[in-house]
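Our consortium's second objective concerns turning raw sequence data into structural hypotheses that experimental partners can test. To show how far this objective has progressed, the report includes one record in full. It was chosen at random from the queue rather than selected for favorable results. The single chain below, 229 residues long, was entered without modification.
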Amino acid sequence: MDLLLEYREQLLAGLVTTVELALASLVLSVTLGLLGAWAKLSANRAANALAGAYTTVVRGVPDLVLIMLVFFGGQVTVNAIGTATGLWDYVEISQFVAGALTIGVIFGAYFTETFRGAILAIPRGQIEAGISTGMSRPLVFRRIIWPQMVRYAVPGFGNNWLVQLKTTALVSVIGLQDLVYNAFSAGRSTGALFTFMAAAFVIYLALTALSDLGLRALERRYSRGVVRA
């Protein structure tokens, strides 16, 4: 316990980085998920094919491979383009940016399928009724599609978020000083690796418990007035 108190600032800094990384990647993944779901449900063949290729490729490659590919290969590619075009000088992609982008893109593919399934679960007649009463498409989305989509998507959304939160630990491999990286560094320097990794274990469980409470509250909010069988 004394060791944990001694390194509490290092662990806290890692925790803050982990939460920031998870939230930044969540914003990107939800955005890509909504766009991907729209594309997959679109009558536009090009958009449909592009979204299909995106979800297939991303879900077929290990997360760690993509993270390392973006961090190392992405930086080389961006600087090669800048040198060839003269549009920018040397650009350095930080571990945080590489991690947030990669995890966001990875889980954007999973959220695409979650949101797509949630939209398909909405009775088509409700959407047609909204249009027939003179509602514009944005109003139909806001009043009919969005509330029900959220209700149907919450279980899958919660599962994806909890996995996404744990996936942030992979970014420690490329040197981001997140919770896992800082706990591992402290454990190696003190010879108490088990103690610090156990602390990381407990912290991740606490984050999961808090997330679960938030997801349950979200589900209750969007299930008001719904009669369960």
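The partners drew two points from this record. The chain has a mean pLDDT of 89. Residues 8-41 form the longest helix (34 residues). Both points have been shared with the crystallography group to help prioritize constructs.
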